[in-house]
Structure formats: C-alpha cells, structure tokens
C-alpha cells in the first residue's frame, strides 16, 4: 500500500474519531433528554445549534470525502478493517477527555484489534 493510501486511510479514521468525540462533547453539554413528542423541536433545535455537534457533523462530511479517496486506491477488504483504529483512538481519548474507564478487558480488546488489523494489512 502506498504512502498516500496510508495517509488517506489514517486521516479518514482520525477525523471520524474526532467527529465521535465532538458529538460526545456536544451531548455532554446538552445533557440527558427524554424521548417524547414534546421534545422533538426543543431538543432538535439544541442539537442542531450546539457547536460541538455541528463540528462533529462537519468532521463526518470531511472524513467521508477522504474515505472515498482512500477507497479509490485501496481494496475495501483492506481499508475497512482500518476503521478499527478509531476504536483505539476513541477509547484512549474518551479516557483522557471525559474520564471514561479503560479497563483491562478493554485494553485486551484493543490489543486484539491491533493484532487483527496487522494481520489484514500484511496480506
């Protein structure tokens, strides 16, 4: 796989991970809300105008464009498993930014993901 292919894949994965973290920050600022007919407009408006959520959605759009560029260069059977790196980035970033737990089981799962992606990229 060429350097540009790696760069596109990793950029797409990282921007997608940032999108997830921004969405989480946005929902943290809005707080928990009930699903009800009365909440559709007020919560919809809060979600639509919350800066972190807008940023997260923008990151998704950018990551899709980058991902399409990557898929034009790399087989999907190789590229798609690389999205798993997002699990690792998000687990560590959520621990650092939001104080979420990263247990031994999660660390073991991350190790398995890394090993699996390594095996796929070697083929």
UniProtKB/TrEMBL annotation:
Q: Which InterPro entries match?
A: EamA_dom, EmrE-like, Small_drug/metabolite_transptr
Membrane-spanning segments? 52-71, 78-98, 104-121
Q: Which residues form the EamA domain?
A: 53-121
Membrane topology is: Multi-pass membrane protein
Q: Which GO terms describe its biological process?
A: lipid A biosynthetic process; lipopolysaccharide biosynthetic process
**Keywords associated with the record:** Cell inner membrane, Cell membrane, Lipid A biosynthesis, Lipid biosynthesis, Lipid metabolism, Lipopolysaccharide biosynthesis, Membrane, Transmembrane, Transmembrane helix
Question: Which Pfam families does UniProt cross-reference here?
Answer: EamA
Q: What is this protein called?
A: EamA domain-containing protein
Q: Which organism is it from?
A: Sulfuriferula nivalis
């Amino acid at each position: 796989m060429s350097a540009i292919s790696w760069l596109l894949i990793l950029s797409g994965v990282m921007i997608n991970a940032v999108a997830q973290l921004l969405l989480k920050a946005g929902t943290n600022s809005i707080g928990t809300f009930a699903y009800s007919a009365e909440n559709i407009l007020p919560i919809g408006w809060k979600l639509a105008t919350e800066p972190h959520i807008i940023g997260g959605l923008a990151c998704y759009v950018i990551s899709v464009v980058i991902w399409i560029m990557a898929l034009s260069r790399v087989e999907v059977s190789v590229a798609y498993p690389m999205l798993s790196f997002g699990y690792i980035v998000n687990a560590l970033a959520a621990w650092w930014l939001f104080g979420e737990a990263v247990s031994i089981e999660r660390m073991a799962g991350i190790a398995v993901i890394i090993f699996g992606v390594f095996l796929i990229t070697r083929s």
